[in-house]
Amino acid sequence: MKFKLFLFAAPALALYGGFFLLPAVQGLRYATTDWDGYSATFDDVGLSNLTAVVSNDDLFRNALTNNLKFLLVVVLGQTALALLLAVLLAVPTKGSRFLRGLFFLPTVLSSVSVAFIWKFVYDPNFGLINTVLDTVGLGSWKSAFLGNEGTAIFWVAVAQIWFHAGQMMIIYIAGINQIPPELYEAATTDGAGRWQQFRHVTWPMVAPATTLVIAYTTLQSFKAFDLILGLAGNPPRSGLDVLATRIYTTFANSQLGYAAAESIVFMAAIALVTYLQNRAARMAHA
Amino acid sequence: MSRRLILAIYTLLITVPILVIVAGSFRTTRDLFAAPFGLPTDPTTANYATVLGEQDLLRVLGNSVLVVSVSVPATLLLGSLTAFAVARLPKWPSTLLFGVFALGLAVPAQAIMIPQYVQFERLGLRNSLTGLILVDVVVTLPVAVFILAGFMRTLPPELYEAAEIDGAGPWATFRRIAVPVSYPSLAATAIFLLVMHWNDLLYPLLFIDDPAKRTLPLALLDFQGEYLTDYPLLFTGVVVASLPMILAYAFLQRHFVAGITAGAVKG
């Protein structure tokens, strides 16, 4: 009789099945066609879209490269910053509670808002960074930041870290607060300094939090779309194009079948990165 | 570097851009460019008049409010009913049900948005707020089920069994036991959904062509096209779009943190 409980899940299952699982399967079908999204007819092109995406598409490869650059900078920078802030704010005092709240604040803003804030920070003529550089006499360091095709993606990574570091900080604080205080007491008795305490107590004890932070940051930065569209405009120039924006651009150019094939490769890339990360985490914990 | 110095620097990194944006929304372009860090020399509310008036932002704001006020409760209701089933079903059907939704966690929106676009177009649900609400509910259901089931599964079975012995059916058990004890987890999920749905850009970009049906992030993005370097106007848009969330955050800080980190801990 317990199966009556399935009725509770029925409405959710119907919507999720109809509007999520079904389109996911249809996507596989579209990927084997040259459909533009409008025409009544289209041809079956088999796996040629997929092979073209994988072997012979410079735009796609450029977007993937940008994705990986972005991922690397965000994962390393954000994890290190979140851990640093968490270590400094883990002990609850009145001031630390306020700062935690402040550092978390950007997370509740929309990506488009964050993009506009950083567009102004980076503005080559009137932007905050160049103004500061001018004021302190470092005018020669002024830069167009987002104007340089080779490095623009790194500046977007900085904006992404500003956006989400506070969220990851909270996960680290939860991890640090679970460390038994006796471990620190023992370390102090053994004469360990602050750095040694971090190195031998905090860092190993927050390994599960690190795994989680890296996994989530990876997923979040791989899917980054709104922030890039807001900072770069639509469609983004090649230096700022990532897989999510590339798929959107292909789709907007009425190459629906091809965009569906790109989506499949995008998913496979995410699955591969997640898998490699899980393996690395397991090896590190072993 | 000392603790205080690092914290002071990061505090500046967070607050300075935000304060410049807020101050800038009350300035003219010329005033802003003359001294980006300054306060308004001659404060003006003209940007707000432009944004709220010409740009129809009140209607856009209304659309956003409408979307979240339907989509968040709907996702919460569907998600908690499903989570209850996951918590109460015998082992293998429970695993199966949970697994089907867990599958959705691994699929990024960009991977299914194209077939969804085609499907919603065929059903006449594109370019409508109903369609937008529907797709918001669908894509966040897996996360809602994940968080809520994670909570309801940890509750002791005796809690439910006691009610059932007293003759309560599953519906009564859900309403009188599961929902009240899950309150913290429901609140956290609600906040997570609120932030997700309020800030979503991808689906409005894909689904909405009619300017009258835009939501805030989409209207904000359109702004950029119209006022390419009119920063004070862009800043005003940012303030209007963010203020409701920031106010809510100020009052419900604990729930926001719990909600967004619960969303992060979805695995």
UniProtKB/TrEMBL annotation, chain A:
Keywords from the named record: Cell membrane, Membrane, Transmembrane, Transmembrane helix, Transport
Gene3D superfamilies according to UniProt: MetI-like
Transmembrane segments: 70-91, 98-118, 152-174, 201-219, 256-276
One Pfam family in the UniProt entry: BPD_transp_1
Family annotation (SUPFAM superfamilies): MetI-like
Matches recorded under CDD domains: TM_PBP2
Annotated ABC transmembrane type-1 domain residues: 64-277
InterPro entries: ABC_transporter_permease, MetI-like, MetI-like_sf
Protein location: Cell membrane
Domain of life: Bacteria
Membrane topology: Multi-pass membrane protein
Protein's UniProt name: Carbohydrate ABC transporter permease
Species of origin: Actinoplanes sichuanensis
Automatic annotation (TrEMBL), chain B:
UniProt subcellular location: Cell membrane
One of the Pfam families matching this protein, by short name: BPD_transp_1
Broad class of the protein's primary localization: membrane
Residue ranges annotated for the ABC transmembrane type-1 domain, each copy included: 61-252
Membrane-related topology note: Multi-pass membrane protein
Segments crossing the lipid bilayer: 7-26, 65-89, 96-117, 129-151, 177-198, 231-252
Keywords: Cell membrane, Membrane, Transmembrane, Transmembrane helix, Transport
Family stated for the protein in its record: Belongs to the binding-protein-dependent transport system permease family.
Protein name (record): Carbohydrate ABC transporter permease
Organism, scientific name: Actinoplanes sichuanensis
